[in-house]
Design goal:
Helices cover about 80% and strands about 0% of the residues.
Length: about 100
């Protein structure tokens, strides 16, 4: 367990340090941070919905030979709709 933690820190330590450094020097204000956190939350929900749709789609056989790469289209469709939702929320938040 201890070796796994040290491996993780040695691999991703620089990346975490760079992210924190850039976060500190960017001087984001609370509305921007709130929007970033909301976008992150919505992306997590989009990944969860895509995973659920992939699970359902692979368990239920709708056709013997699918004509298109359906799993990729599900993933793309979910993320496009969530991206448009984030854009709408972002515009509504900063238009006041």
């Amino acid at each position: 367990m201890k070796k796994e933690v040290s491996n993780f820190l040695s691999r991703y330590g620089f990346l975490m340090f760079a992210f924190l450094f850039l976060f500190i020097i960017s001087k984001l204000e609370p509305p921007e941070i709130r929007t970033f956190l909301l976008a992150s939350l919505l992306e997590c929900l989009a990944i969860a919905f895509s995973s659920f749709a992939s699970f359902v789609f692979t368990k239920v056989r709708f056709s013997e030979t699918p004509n298109a790469p359906n799993l990729g289209l599900i993933f793309l469709g979910v993320h496009i709709s969530f991206g448009l939702s984030v854009l709408a929320l972002y515009l509504a938040q900063f238009s006041n």
